[in-house]
Design goal:
Helices cover 32% and strands 19% of the residues. Helix 9 links the parallel strand 8 and strand 9. It is of the alpha/beta class and 382 residues long.
């Protein structure tokens, strides 16, 4: 007789292969992004996106399957009439056949979509504001609730449920109300079991920080230099606003004269005029003296220029830069120099002998990520 029914069990792990493959692919993409952060940070499509939620980034290191000849024994057997040989990639036409182009195969780039917050999390993982300290000020304090005692009387909104239940169990245990049949006692709460938290409002100092973003906008700042400076400040602003609540960012632009501008003007201002870097350092000192005393604020200043400064202005630049370093938790100077030569301005600013003054040179787009790590990944001596 045929069986009336059959008992079987599906292997449900087979039904999840698609999900597992998808998660593995996401992990591979994340690993590839980590390996190529230097390229991605300076990607023009991200900088020009205006901080959109979803962006497209090109990544490499995700290899597609390719057929290769592996068996040397098959080299002479069944070989076609083509000119392929052992080890050749056969999913592409051989290169180097037209106009003497290079013989090495190119590296594939793949474009993938990613949430900009996820990308920022990878970029900012090891970044911080160096030497950030609490600053005490009457107007710059916050209040927090501090629970400091447990009492039998209080308002119901402050009841401590855990301690109330424990007191109920203790009372029942003392009264021997547990029976052999009931391994778990009933929760029978009386007014004597109630326990309430008491709390005080405690003032705490707010760790305030002021960041001065200073950029050279003179005529010597070409398209590349301008793009690099804005790329650095794009990620700096996003980093500060995502990791620190009490941070104010001021934007200073300068050519021969310096002035405070809005964020929109800072990222859109064109290039014109000569270059006097002392003007922006002088303005930064004035702003700190008038509004942000180091006694109450953690001050940071970052200046980017191409290093092409008016020669007679260098002595003023070193004077005001030295003064600014003394008022800041950290001061940074980044020079955008694709030529690789040493500018007179870099030689001058390096005369500032202070561990809280840090310099870096950017020669190509990939160095933007290194600049972020140089300025915000540094542990300064206390």
């Amino acid at each position: 007789m045929e069986p009336l029914f059959t008992i079987s069990r599906d292997d449900w792990s087979l039904h999840r292969k698609g999900h597992l493959d998808q998660e593995r692919h996401k992990q591979k993409v994340k690993e590839a992004i980590k390996k190529n952060l230097a390229d991605i940070v300076s990607e023009e499509s991200i900088i020009m996106s205006g901080g959109k939620d979803i962006i497209k980034v090109p990544i490499r290191s995700i290899k597609q399957f390719k057929f290769r000849f592996n068996d040397k024994d098959q080299e002479q057997v069944g070989q076609g009439s083509g000119d392929s040989s052992v080890g050749d990639i056969i999913d592409k036409a051989k290169k180097g056949q037209v106009d003497q182009a290079g013989e090495a195969p190119g590296e594939d780039y793949y474009e993938t979509e990613i949430n900009i917050d996820e990308l920022a999390e990878l970029i900012f993982a090891d970044l911080h504001l160096p030497n950030l300290k609490p600053k005490q000020h009457n107007e710059l304090t916050d209040k927090e609730v501090e629970f400091n005692d447990i009492r039998k009387k209080g308002i119901m909104s402050n009841i401590d449920k855990k301690r109330t239940i424990i007191e109920s169990f203790k009372r029942q245990a003392r009264g021997n109300v547990f029976t052999a049949q009931s391994s778990v006692p009933e929760i029978n709460i009386t007014p004597d079991d109630l326990r309430f938290k008491t709390w005080d409002m405690k003032e705490k100092p707010i760790t305030n920080a002021i960041v001065l973003a200073m950029m050279d906008t003179s005529a010597s700042m070409g398209t590349f230099e301008k793009y690099i400076a804005r790329s650095f400040y794009f990620w700096m602003v996003r980093f500060l606003r995502s990791k620190y609540q009490q941070v104010e960012i001021l934007f200073l632009a300068h050519d021969a004269e310096a002035k405070e501008v809005t964020e929109e003007q800072f990222f859109q201002k064109g290039e014109s005029g000569g270059t006097k870097c002392s003007s922006v350092y002088r303005l930064a000192n004035e702003i700190i003296d008038e509004r942000y005393s180091p006694e109450f604020y953690n001050n940071y200043a970052f200046h980017f220029s191409d290093g092409d400064n008016w020669p007679s202005d260098n002595h003023l630049t070193i004077k005001y830069a030295t003064e600014l370093v003394g008022k800041c938790s950290m001061t940074g100077y980044g020079e955008i120099n694709p030529r690789g030569s040493v500018s007179t301005l870099m030689e001058v600013v390096k005369e500032v002998k202070d561990p809280a003054f840090i310099t870096c040179t950017i020669r190509e787009k990939e160095d933007v990520y290194s600049a972020l790590k140089t300025f915000f990944g540094t542990q300064l001596p206390q």
